[in-house]
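Hey, can you fold this one?
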Amino acid sequence: MININWYEAKQYVAWLSQVTGQPYRLLTEAEWEYAARAGTMTAYSWGDEIGTGNANCYNCGSQWDNREASPVGSFKANAFGLFDMHGNVWQWVEDCYEDSLNGVPADGTARTSGNCSRRVVRGGSWNNGPRLIRSAARNGNGTDFRGVARGFRIGRTLIAGAGATTVSPGEH
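Sure. Predicted structure:
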């Protein structure tokens, strides 16, 4: 799903939670980066070089580069089995946006203070160069902003024994 603002992404996860009885939500910025890195410390989950045909971005070597979003799953999954973490469309996350990462919660929860009229987007898109689709790249948009390069990824908190883990079932 593209051309959706942050509020609409939140409405979708609330609806999905109600329909399924499961606790769906937007990922936090920290969860998103953990999922994108898939156990690596490189620029992209596949390494430090963009290569050819690994993602949909400007000059990434795919048939959709700088034209449009590609169908979900058009590229190889990362080591966690997640598709399209790099490129394709920016993905809304829960966090309020600040230019600096100073003050980000150390426990992986969302930043819920500061300028919450802007929210974080991660992943880059089909019309961004390789630098903006790196695992660490981030941006912020107004909560009402819609665009053909904006989407979202949902997570669901699973209660397993004494701890909780988050899974990211897919890009929407």
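The chain has two helices and six strands. Let me know if you want another pass with a different chain boundary.
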